[in-house]
# Entry
Amino acid sequence: MLAITKSVALQGLDGYMVSIQVDISSGIPQFEIVGLPDASVKESKERVKTAIRNCQWEFLSRKIVVNLAPADIRKEGSAFDLPIAIGILVASQGEKDNVVQNFLENTIIVGELSLNGKVEKVKGILPICLEAQKLGYHKIILPKENANEVSMINGIDIFPVSHLKEVMEHLNGEGVLKKLQVREVDTKNTGVYPFDFSEVKGQENAKRALEIAAAGGHNCLLIGSPGSGKTMLAKRLPSILPDMSWEEMMEVTKIYSIEGYTSENEPIIKTRPFRSPHHTITATSLIGGGRNPRPGEISLAHYGILFLDELPEFPQNILEMLREPLEDKVVTISRLNASTDYPCHFILIASMNPCPCGYYGSKHRQCNCRPEQIKKYLNRISGPLLDRMDLYVEADHVEYNKLDSKEVLETSAQIRKRVNQARKLQRERYQRDGIFTNAELTPKLLEKFCQLDRKSKKILETAFQKLGLSARAYERILKVARTIADLEEKETIQEIHIAEAIQYRSLDRKYWKEES
Ligand SMILES: Nc1ncnc2c1ncn2[C@@H]1O[C@H](COP(=O)(O)OP(=O)(O)OP(=O)(O)O)[C@@H](O)[C@H]1O
Ligand SMILES: [Mg+2]
# Structure
């Protein structure tokens, strides 16, 4: 007696169809799961067996073999419990009629089982559901507790179930599974953030740099003395980030769904992520990986911000690992049987003191570090990582009169309006070029979209020679100038734009002058 059920397994954000073939034959009683199941799938055996018995069905004392095909990819997780149990029960019943056969052939089934037969929530339900749809399936049975997370998906009939019995009653014609109603989701950004830029006094330069970073997707390094507001500024960055498109929301939500970070009340991630890992983070948690690969902080920051506070405190080997993902926007985790890709298109914002005491370069307090101490401290950040920063900005001590001032400052909502407008211009300009922001401009596209007039060229040439800029720095200045022009809604880059962009590249000369 053979029964086949269908399920979907994930590899990164993508999935593949798993065919669960259950064969029950006479022979020495045993229960085997084959087809590269990992330890978590093997545990399924006990859950399925106990759940079936506790539902008062007989678990046949026969030879039961469950094959998970394709057999060359390692399967993990508990989501196969339900399709395995259904396969066993259907195969135990002997001859199936066509209706049941048809239903099982055309329906994806996912769900973990508890020992009493209750169907439990699984991780990654959104990518599973989307993949089922992509594979051409029109029906999916999934845990009721997951239903809200996928209720916005059109084009596939979703049948939420809370117990194994419900599915069997449906197959036996004793009950009918109820289809989930498609729910419209409000994708509008609520615009409510816990922090606002209007709370930051002074620091106009740093605020401006963060506005440019948000508008063009540029990486930014904040350098300054203790207590000047670097952490405070960075924490407010989410409140000025551009609104997300539907595609961006879905991609980010898929990553969060895999990690089980989506909730019934907040099924869709509508605001850009802001991840701020501590400097004690491990390489695996930052980049992703592990025995059963998981996305790391850089992927959880996808389409949002990765904030590294106190940058020199991060171990050098951890910082070096960021270099490739920063360029590629995707991280590939390889292991024995497969390699998994996770997207990681984030803006890197970092903050640091310029020296161990924190006051090197400050206009307000004497630094008491020795030159070699300063050099050693600054050298913890490697040249290639520094080179990937588009904006360098100083946040020095704020004057008392600014802190005490009752002046009404610009709110995040006002800044976000400009950022949104600048992003719209970029989207329209690059719609045929496969990029979204100025930070992604390739050398060829730079030539096409960042033409300079004679005067601007002269300014850039002078700065290039005076500051001894690298080719990479030259490109980054052009990209930042493009964003500054976009914030002003100017189609051509003008002298003031290029002059301002150069200013954000001159700070690294101040601190790292000898190295570069
Ligand atoms: N520009 C500012 N406007 C208003 N409050 C500020 C400002 N700068 C600092 N503060 C106050 O000081 C506190 C400390 O600032 P913050 O932690 O951002 O400093 P920091 O630059 O990150 O310092 P460190 O280098 O020690 O990490 C803030 O929580 C805030 O209350
Ligand atoms: Mg700080």
User: Anything to note?
Assistant: Residues 200-203, 224, 226-232, 353, 398 surround adenosine-5'-triphosphate (ligand 1) (CB under 6 Å). The CA atoms of residues 224 and 396 lie 5 Å apart. The domain at 2-171 is CATH 3.30.230.10 (Ribosomal Protein S5; domain 2).
